[in-house]
Amino acid sequence: MNTVAISLSIIGSTVALIRTLGAPIRKILKLQKNQTNGITCLLRRDILDLVNKANSQGFICETEIEELRNLYENYKNLDGNGVVDRVIDSAFNVPMKNKGE
Predict the structure, then answer these.
(1) How far apart are CA 73 and CA 79, in angstroms?
(2) Which helix (H) or strand (E) holds 96?
(3) d(C-alpha 45, C-alpha 85), whole Å
C-alpha cells in the first residue's frame, strides 16, 4: 500500500509541476520562434539588398561576396525559405571587383 501511495504522490507532483512549468515554457518557445522568424526576415532583407545591388551595378566586391556567403549560411541555418535560393546565384554570377577598382 505504501508503494501505491508513493507512486500516486510522485505522479501528482509531476502533473502539478508540468502544469506550473507548461505555460512559461510555451511562452519561451513562442518567443524563441518569433525571434528566429524576425532574424530570418532581417537576413533575407540584407541578402536581397546585396543581390539587388550587385545586379544593378553589374559587379560585386570581394568583401560583399564574403558578407553574402555569411548571411546566406546563417539564413539557411535558420531554415530560411527558397526565396533567397532563387536569387542568390545571380549575385555570384556577376563579375567580382576589388573595393578600390
Answers:
(1) 10
(2) strand 96-97
(3) 13
- Phi, psi angle pair for 97, to nearest 5°: -130, 155
The string of pLDDT tens digits covering residues 59-92 is 999 999 999 999 999 999 999 888 898 888 888 8
State the average pLDDT over residues 39-54.
95
Of 43, 86, 97, the residue nearest 67 (C-alpha)? 43
Alpha helices in 1-101 (DSSP H): 2-57, 62-77, 82-92
With CA atoms as reference, report the closest residue to 40 among 88, 92, 83, 91: 83
pLDDT at residue 1, as a whole number: 58
**Which of 100, 84, 83, 101 has the alpha carbon at shortest distance from 92?**
84
Contact status, residue 40 vs residue 80, Cβ threshold 8 Å? yes
